[in-house]
Specification:
mainly beta, Methanol Dehydrogenase, Chain A, Trefoil (Acidic Fibroblast Growth Factor, subunit A), 6-stranded antiparallel β-sheet, 5-stranded mixed β-sheet, 3 helices, 50 strands
Length: 692
């Protein structure tokens, strides 16, 4: 295994170089039917952002069509990981980790690794790997006999995990092999977000009767609903034996609850959905679509969109009339998954009336979940609407991954889809049906030249119903069906796809993210875009002039790394020129400090007990000058640049002197004075900011 290295990202400041930061908004949509709210503090806890799988973050206030361009937006740095990333990166806002509160990005790889990175820097908090010794990821050649098909290398964690923020848990499905016994395992892990430690007695081995742990491929993202974790399976390269499966496991105990076989008594019927997780309505019913497989309309459901109750019984369904020819041509109906179209006229989120799906035919199907999804008829007359969305003359026209949805203040409700070998398209919705002529479309195809799959996988960011941006992870050249090919990230105004705002090849030396992560949507949250790759990295994009603060405006206790003692005022006095020292923390007001961000990386730090500012005595710029408190006067000897170091600690640098807040002589005894000193990276120059 490769050891990941962490690369810092810097930008100029008046003190020289400063680590790039992230903004702190987010999208907190985890359980069934949570209400979406603009301007909320948000996280991205599940594949394609929410339980409807709209792919939209409508609480993005930083990135706009006016500032996403080559001059002001680009790649800031990349996280290094140990393998290919098929899973969408997930984001938790305001997590208590490493002794402080941070925004955290979670990344899973095909080498059976899970990483927790600081989402505002490139600091790694923890890395868990489920292999070692005789336990390895599953070599794809064990399954297909070939390393040049849909998957190259190893099969470890292929699906997007799901996060429960209420219990601070990330659920992950990992596949491993015991090389000494040639035994294959699929295991559900529940990891603590702050430490990566196993929870709830995990991991648990998944091996119900009839389930082939070697051959069954777990591609769709995990989902959480109804107190359970939902996991779906298909196959690798349609290699038998396999069936489509949906299983539920208790989120609190990991115990297996229910098993649903999509082709009971038959075969195939994969649930793969190009990585899309199941969708859920406000009643907790699940929506999935299947690929090639047996069909009888009672127990066998190949080439079908299924509505399942929370206990996984079939409640409703729709099968295209040409399912037999779809089977014969390997034209999976289930290549896209299901997206629930929000019904704004019925009160907005979470009410939904329609299911939008599609597949390798390039047809968009609109199914009415409330009035019968359509079942199977000779002319598809039971379906609410269907139309040919993807049209190519000489190449394939598959849809992989569902469309994304947005309600624009200018143009109303719309979906966006980008099938392979075609341009990206937007279709308007009038509340009942879609116009079948694209309202707006891109000028380029995916790939840019020749024929190839999988088209583009989309996400959308917006500030409510304004400033919509469509983000597209595209093939640049080549065919990703069996090859590792270069990818390109593109951004378009959601109101006008005709003009590209930005792409990662406009300044390729700065912005290229490497090889395409097939079927993996970009994650957009808090002013940043996280793009996975098959180049063992996750690229981080944002505003090149980003001035987001590393710490929020709040009151903290400030703890020295070297001693564990708190920054305080000698004698708990509150008069001008009182010196500071390190002390055993007692929650005294003289040991509590309020930070206010001033811009440019600098803060003022005001003592709670005194109301006076942390200050360099006499405005000295000499090493060894003592730190005192003084009435705030906005001078630079009272301003401090705070930057992360490692493990949740920060350096504190005086703006005027460029010297570091330092415990005198690197001593650890209570009462040791605090001074300023030349930066040396020692623990006595590192501080943790914690809630008092």
């Amino acid at each position: 295994m490769k050891t990941p290295s962490l690369n810092a990202c810097y930008r100029p400041t008046r003190l020289g170089l400063k680590l790039c930061k992230f903004a702190t908004l987010g999208l907190c949509l985890g359980g069934v039917a949570l209400t979406q709210s603009a301007y909320a503090q948000v996280s991205v806890l599940t594949q394609h952002n929410d339980q409807f799988r709209t792919g939209a973050n409508t609480s993005e206030t930083t990135l706009t069509p006016s500032n996403v361009n080559k001059s002001t937006f680009g790649k800031l740095y990349s996280y290094a990981v140990d393998g290919y990333v098929y899973a969408q990166p997930l984001y938790v806002h305001g997590l208590s980790i490493s002794g402080a509160t941070h925004n955290v990005l979670f990344v899973a790889t095909m080498e059976d690794s899970v990483y927790a990175f600081d989402a505002d820097t490139d600091v790694m908090y923890w890395h868990k790997q489920f292999t070692g010794g005789d336990i390895t990821p599953v070599p794809i050649t064990d399954i297909t006999g070939n390393n040049n098909l849909n998957i190259h290398g190893d099969v470890g964690i292929e699906s997007t995990p799901v996060i429960d923020s209420t219990t601070s848990t990330i659920y992950v499905l990992a596949r491993t092999k015991n090389t000494s016994t040639t035994t294959y395992y699929q295991m559900l892990h529940a990891l603590d977000l702050a430490t990566g430690d196993e929870k709830f007695g995990g991991p648990v081995t998944i091996a119900p009767s009839g389930f082939n742990t070697k051959m069954q491929n777990q591609r769709p993202g995990l989902a959480e609903a109804n107190g359970n974790i939902y996991i779906c399976w298909g196959s690798h390269e349609d290699m038998t034996p396999y069936n489509g499966y949906v299983m539920t496991f208790s989120a609190g105990t990991l115990a297996l609850q229910t098993v649903f076989n999509t082709t009971s008594g038959g075969s195939q019927g994969a649930v793969w959905q190009a990585g899309q997780a199941p969708a859920f309505d406000h009643s907790g019913n699940a929506y999935i679509s299947t690929g090639n497989g047996d069909w009888n309309g009672t127990t066998q459901w190949g080439e079908t969109c299924l509505k399942l109750t929370p206990s996984l019984t079939v409640l409703d369904w729709a099968t295209p009339a040409d399912y037999a020819s779809l089977n014969a041509g390997d034209t999976d109906f289930g290549a896209a998954g299901c997206m629930l179209l929000p019904n704004l006229g019925a009160g907005g989120y979470p009410s939904t009336s329609y299911v939008v799906t599609g597949g390798k035919e390039g047809i968009i199907y609109v199914l009415d979940k409330s009035n019968g999804m359509g079942h199977e008829t000779s002319n598809n007359s039971g379906m609410h609407q269907l139309f040919q969305a993807i049209q190519t003359a000489q190449c394939t026209h598959h849809i992989h991954g569902t469309p994304v949805y947005w309600d624009s203040a200018v143009n109303g409700e719309m979906i966006y889809v980008w099938g392979e070998n075609d341009v990206g398209k937007c279709f308007k919705f009038n509340g009942t049906t879609f116009t079948t002529t694209p309202f707006t479309k891109t000028s380029v195809t995916s790939p840019t030249t020749g024929c190839g799959m999988p088209g583009a996988i989309l996400s959308l960011s917006a500030n409510g119903n304004t400033n919509g941006i469509v983000w597209a992870s595209c093939v640049y050249t080549g065919d990703a069906v069996h090859d590792i090919v270069p990818g390109i990230l593109r951004a378009y105004s959601a109101d006008n796809l005709g003009t590209e705002l930005w792409d990662s090849y406009q300044d390729q030396s700065r912005d290229d993210f490497g090889n395409l992560a097939k079927y993996c949507p970009p994650t957009i949250v808090n002013g940043k875009v996280y793009m996975a790759s098959f180049s063992d990295t996750v690229a981080v994009y944002g505003l090149l002039t980003d001035d987001s603060p590393p710490l929020g405006n709040a009151t903290y206790k400030i703890i020295s790394r070297s001693s564990g003692l708190a920054l305080g005022v000698v004698g708990m006095t509150s008069t001008n020129s009182s010196d500071t020292d390190i002390e055993t923390y007692s929650a005294a007001p003289s040991q509590q400090w309020t930070l206010t961000y001033l811009g440019g990386g600098a803060y003022k730090i005001i003592g709670v007990g005194s109301g006076r500012a942390l200050d360099v005595t006499g405005q000295s710029v000499a090493p060894g000058a003592l730190i005192d408190i003084y009435s705030y006067n906005a001078q630079e000897n009272q301003q401090w640049v705070i930057e992360p170091t490692s493990g949740g600690y920060y350096s504190v640098q005086g703006v005027q002197s460029g010297l570091m807040l330092d415990v005198q002589g690197n001593k650890t005894a209570p009462g040791t004075p605090v001074d300023q000193w030349t930066s040396n990276g020692a623990n006595n120059q590192q501080w943790m900011f914690e809630s008092p």
